[in-house]
Amino acid sequence: MYFTSLQLKKFIYKTLSQSNISEATKIQEEVLPWTILNKSAIITSRTGSGKTLCYLLPILNNIDLEYKEVQALIVLPTKELARQVFSKLEEFKKNEPLLKTLLLVGNEDQKRQIDKLKCSKPQIVVGTIGKVHEFVKNKLITKKIKTFVLDEVDMLFDLGFKKIVDELFSAIDSNNLQKIVCSATAHESFAGQLKKHLKNTKVFSTSSSIWENKQIKHTIVYSKDNYNPYDTLVRFLPNINPYFCIIFANTKDEVNKIYQILVNQKYNVAMLHKDLTTRERKNTFKDINANKLQYLVATDLASRGIDVVGADVVISFGLPDEDIWYIHRAGRVGRYKNIGEVFVIYKNGIDNKIIKFSHNRIDWCYSLLNSDNTLSDKPLRLKAPRKIVFDAKTNNEIRKIINVNSRKVKPGYKKRIKEQIQKVKQKKKREYIESKVKQNLLRKNIEESKKRNI
């Protein structure tokens, strides 16, 4: 489907044309004829499939440009995501002087933001959930909202914002309110949690599995001695020459270490994690957009929804603790109709996750890093962990945790249950390993004793 088949305003067509966007993606083709009619929708589609335009185009097409009040509210979980969506709106503003927008994010002067709201009189407000909630609660944003968007809704729930989401719906809900909810990896539970707010809402989904993306190649990179993944990473990098590469690590300390190593190696690199200041983050994205960088080292802060134009390679330093974060990491490439590559730097102890991802239909390739730093296609022999069968006592302890924590549903309760169960299982595994070690030692002592007696 071409966008010209939709009845859109001239400035929308002009902006799309300037961005070389003419043909709709699969999800856009399904959703746009519905949302342009002011109808509500739940949109679930893989990263990079074009969900943002599924709500921006209807908003831009349906707002009254002569009416100087907030008519559309777009809520996101992080400042980076909010700024990204806001920057897309800025492109449309260049072709329509009557269009007014406002960005509301934390760590910025509230009085200045209030003055901006009153002076600019925006029709569209984009913001983080905490800041938007603050403005709605203080009645700085009126109830005359036409469209309310929750993007990356599963992340909002994971971060414990369900109560605030409920309060926002209660504050601005009306019979004519268009509600659009988006996610790349929606939980099965989130639709049920939003059920009371999303009655008669049509669900759109273009993928049977969030794990499958034929535009991305997944490769495990390993060396014969896997004791130093940092060394593996440094030796691997000369094998690629990306246009733009994001290296994901699990912790801030790993990011800092990798960043310093690459700086010492004279790579054109920046880093991104939660402890950086707002100015430092802004400057990093400014440099990325200006094509001043070739590498970015980041925690998973950058893996949710961030669209880096031109990113063609992702390197995952090991694998994340939560499986779903690997999908978000990989989703920074292979966006729209582009091809991308994801390399996982092997770390000891991730064999089980690699096997688990294989069961989830990720088709791994394997590359052995040779002593001369060249790569050879050679399968990695994975060590499948022994499955521990928990006894009745342990299973009862797990059931007790679930029953106690499920009585009062609070933000993040599922995560707490999971963590507590994991602790019980880890304790049992340690006991199992210790008993095996003792058995082996005892067997060895008996064998040595028998030899001495002979």
Describe the 3D structure:
It contains 16 helices and 15 strands. The protein is globular and about 95 Å long. The mean pLDDT is 83. By secondary structure, the protein is α/β, with parallel strands linked by helices. Strand 3 (101-104), helix 5 (110-120) and strand 4 form a beta-alpha-beta unit. Helix 15 packs antiparallel against helix 16.
Count of runs of 4 or more consecutive helical residues: 16
Q: How far apart are the first and last residues' alpha carbons, in Å? A: 85 Å
Structural class: alpha/beta
* Dominant shape: globular
Strand order of the largest sheet: 10-11-9-12-13-8-14-15
Q: How many distinct beta strands?
A: 15
Give start-end ranges of low-pLDDT stretches.
none
Largest sheet: 8 strands, mixed
Strand content: 15-25%
Secondary-structure topology with pairs:
Layout: H1 10-18, H2 26-35, E1 41-44, H3 51-62, E2 72-76, H4 79-93, E3 101-104, H5 110-120, E4 124-128, H6 129-137, E5 147-150, H7 153-158, H8 162-172, E6 178-183, H9 188-193, E7 202-205, E8 216-223, H10 229-236, E9 245-248, H11 252-264, E10 269-272, H12 278-289, E11 295-298, E12 313-317, H13 323-330, E13 340-345, H14 351-359, E14 364-369, E15 375-377, H15 392-405, H16 413-453
Parallel strand pairs: 1-6, 1-7, 2-4, 2-5, 3-4, 5-6, 8-13, 8-14, 9-11, 9-12, 10-11, 12-13
Antiparallel strand pairs: 14-15
In short:
The chain has 454 residues and is α/β, with parallel strands linked by helices. 43% of the residues lie in helices and 16% in strands.
Which labels suit this protein?
16 helices, 15 strands, alpha/beta, 8-stranded mixed β-sheet, 454 residues, globular
